[in-house]
Amino acid sequence: MGKGKIMSSRNDKVKKILFILILSLAIYILSITKAFAADFLFPSLHIGIEKGGDPGDISILLQIVFLLTILSLAPAILILMTSFTRLVVVFSFLRQALHTQQTPSNQIIAGLALFLTLFIMMPVWQKINNNALQPYLNEEISQEVALKAAMNPMRQFMFKQTREKDLALFVKMARIKKPKNPEDIPTSTLIPAFVISELKTAFIIGFVLYVPFLIIDMVVASVLLSMGMMMLPPIMISLPFKLMLFVLVDGWHMIVGSLVKSFAGG
Known about the structure:
mainly alpha, 10 helices, 0% strand
């Protein structure tokens, strides 16, 4: 009994010592926090709407809203006004003709089409930089003149790749007067005509790509049928032959080279 009382008294002392240590540590932390808060000034942020007395403030606000709108539409502008549409559609047709499922993946196809677009459109963007962006940054021309100068190279590129039939279709649907020269055609009419022309060209190229691989599929299916192996999927046998043919003819070199040359000669 004596030993039990001694052990319990020791435990009580240990508990009291631990409690004192924890309490002093908490007090020390609180004192450091108060000292830090006294020395450090937290920034305050105020957001509000006030009446603008200067018309220039409203003009700057409208310019910011316009810039944010352009940035949100940048992906659509990149896709619909450049060579990106034709490239990505052709690469998708190529993957389907090879029957390689998700190889190459959508990210690789989009990335390759994006960098080829940068390569193909580089001369156009250099003209925009020299004729519109740099003079505007140097305050040599106004914003309206810079915008018009930037659109001219893009319009010239789209006119080269747009069929007259497609252009006439949208001119007719827009109910505008018969244009005497390309400058009379608004950009809002040129862009959709350019897009459907690009889609038609991409579908034609996709059909040409499909033909040799379709012949391989038909030959393999006929051989398997004549051998009585009807339960074996023909795609499983034809895929290695397609890949071998594509590698032997250096398919990526031919396709990418032909696509780039098709824009150069447009």
